[in-house]
Design goal:
Layout lengths: L12 E3 L53 H17 E3 L19 H6 L6 H9 L6 H18 L5 H21 L6 E3 L16 E3 L1 H13 L23 H6 L6 H9 L6 H18 L5 H18 L7 H13 L2
Helix pairs in contact: 1-3, 1-5, 4-5, 6-8, 6-11, 9-10
Pfam family, one: Bromodomain
Protein name: Bromodomain-containing protein
GO molecular function: chromatin binding
Length: 333
């Protein structure tokens, strides 16, 4: 496997290949086969969809609930074919470096760094053997595959970008299967009619998932008077190797990146669930760190100045409506 040039952006991607029935989602972690001769130790990479990525997909309104393993295989193979057939605007196939695992002889360090290697051909074999009980399990392996590639290769290298784009495509396709009729709006009053059989015109609010993401991004962007970003230390969990005491002390570790991922996977059924996890990030920091230490102080600032004014709406009976108003107010600041 050769090094590849830097440069083709995800926005240049067009999907050419078998069209799938409805599909879409994210999760998990996976092992990727895409390898370049250089590696990036922190190539974590968030998956952000760009509007000019075109995904081929058909329409099947089966929401994915109650699927048999045979159903998962059928839908999964369709997603797999779309991922394999993805090309950019220059008609370059993006999946080539991810089909098979790299040579252990040529890339021994890959197998030292990557704990769970997995390639696209492995995923196809697992589909054939009915090893995936759900599409979520399949999605987890796609994520591991492409996250492995991003972890090993230099950030923003061509192979890193291809991995990011293909991960995004797999996620979107599985999501379309699992949530084919997802409403893009939130009903504020929650009522279907006005009591006389006439359907009441409902107020429509922006999607709750987008609001939670926007609110969390605003929290992350908070800086102190010197321009230092307060959230940096809370973005990722501490190393288990360096901080074993943390994992003995803290019963439920969680970081801001975890919350972003859960928002993306639509795991929060209510705003209250989301707020509780943001609160837990800071509660853990306050519990583990000495009073008035720098991290303790940052946790207090973010929790009190940013989060609590927002979370105070949680006791209100119309939580979603208040959440929206909070979002509008803070966005204007």
């Amino acid at each position: 496997m050769l090094k590849r040039e830097l440069g083709v952006a995800a926005s240049d991607v067009v999907l050419d290949g078998p069209r799938a029935k409805r599909s879409r989602n994210v999760s998990g972690e996976s092992g990727g086969s895409g390898v370049s001769a250089v590696k990036d130790k922190d190539g974590d990479g968030d998956v952000e969809m760009k509007d000019d990525v075109v995904v081929g997909g058909g329409g099947d309104d089966n929401g994915g609930s109650g699927m048999t393993k045979e159903d998962v295989r059928e839908k999964g193979v369709e997603v797999w074919q779309i991922v394999k057939g993805a090309v950019n605007k220059e008609n370059r196939t993006l999946s080539t470096d991810f089909l098979r695992l790299p040579s252990k002889r040529q890339y021994p360090d890959y197998y030292t760094l990557i704990k769970r290697p997995i390639a696209l051909e492995d995923i196809h074999a697992n589909l054939d053997k009915l090893k995936y009980p759900t599409l979520e399990a399949l999605r987890a392996d796609f994520e591991v595959c492409f996250k492995n590639a991003k972890k090993y290769n230099v950030r923003e290298s061509q192979i890193w970008r291809d991995a990011k784009t293909l991960q995004k495509i797999a996620t979107k396709e599985i999501d379309k299967i699992l949530h084919p009729n997802e409403d893009e709006h939130v009903d504020v009053d929650g009522s279907d009619d006005d009591g006389d059989g006439t359907s009441k015109k409902k107020k429509k609010l922006p999607n709750m998932t987008r609001l939670m993401k926007s609110r969390l991004q605003k929290l992350v962007g908070r800086k102190d008077d010197d321009g230092r970003q307060l959230s940096n230390v809370f973005m990722d969990l501490p190393s288990k190797k360096k901080w074993p005491l943390y994992y003995k002390t803290i019963k439920r570790p969680i970081c801001i990146e975890d919350i972003f991922k859960r928002i993306k996977r639509k795991e929060y059924e209510t705003v209250a669930d989301f707020m509780a996890e943001v609160e837990l990030v800071f509660a853990n920091a306050l519990q583990f760190n000495d009073d008035h230490s720098p991290i303790w102080e940052d946790a207090v600032l973010l929790r009190v100045r940013t989060f609590l004014p927002f979370s105070s709406h949680s006791s209100h009976p119309h939580l979603i409506s208040n959440f929206y108003q909070s979002h509008r107010t803070t966005s204007a600041n």
